[in-house]
Each structure stands twice: as C-alpha cells, then as structure tokens.
Amino acid sequence: MKIIKPNMAVAELEPAMQDVMVLTGGYVTNEFPLPCRTLEKFASSANLVQIDFYLNEANQIITFHYGYRLSLDRTIRAIDCFTDFTTDQVNKILQILLGEIRSH
After folding, report:
1. Backbone phi, psi, residue 12, to 5°
2. Three-state SS for 10?
3. Residue pair 16/56 in contact by the 8 Å Cβ criterion
4. What pTM did the predictor assign?
5. 42, 87 in Cβ contact below 8 A?
6. Per-residue DSSP letters for 17-70?
7. Distance separating alpha carbons of residues 60 and 45, to the nearest angstrom
8. Torsion of CA 53, 54, 58, 60, to 10 degrees
C-alpha cells in the first residue's frame, strides 16, 4: 500500500491511484490516516495557490496543497479532506482553503 503524506514529492503522485493510505494534515483537517481503494484527480486550482482535488471511492474530496523545497522540487505541503462536499462545490472548498491560507 502506497502512503501519501505531507513533504512527499509531487512526482510520486499519479492522476489515478489504487490502494493508497493518505495521511491527512492540512489547513482545516487534523492528522489522521485515510485508507483509499481508489483515488482519482478531478480538478486543479487556477489560482496562485497550487491545489489538486482528488476523489476517493467514498466520494470524499481530498486536496493536496503544493509548495517547493529549496532544491525547487515540488512537494505536498498539506492534505485536507472534505467529507460533506460534492464535486460541484470545488469553488466553495477553494474559498475555505484560501481563507485559512491567508490567515496563516
């Protein structure tokens, strides 16, 4: 089982993955392990903040926030999970995240 966690290189992610463990811990989500049988990318932010939106088999939305290391490698900075939203509400999720990012 592949483990996806903060500080992992973005190059290790794929648009569709199977049997992964996502270790959340982000701007609005506490740290907890989230096993996923499937995880598929369905959207990306067009803002300056780099966020990809993935959906698992339970229709939970998982967001990966990206940043850069000093070596200029792109990495996952934070992972948030949204269980009460649908894929049609990506803009609402993005506004929640941008509000939290601005407050830090």
Report:
1. -80, -10
2. helix
3. no
4. 0.88
5. yes
6. EEEEEEE-BSSS----EEEEEEEEEEEE--SSS-EEEEEETT--EEEEEEEE-T
7. 18
8. -20
The single residue listed with the structure tokens 């369905």 is 42
Give bridge partners of residue 32 from the DSSP assignment. none
The neighbouring-strand residues paired with 61 are 55, 82
What share of the chain has pLDDT > 70, as a percent? 97
> Beta strand pairing status for 16-23 and 2-4?
parallel
Report pLDDT for 48. 64
Say what percent of the chain tops pLDDT 90.
Answer: 59
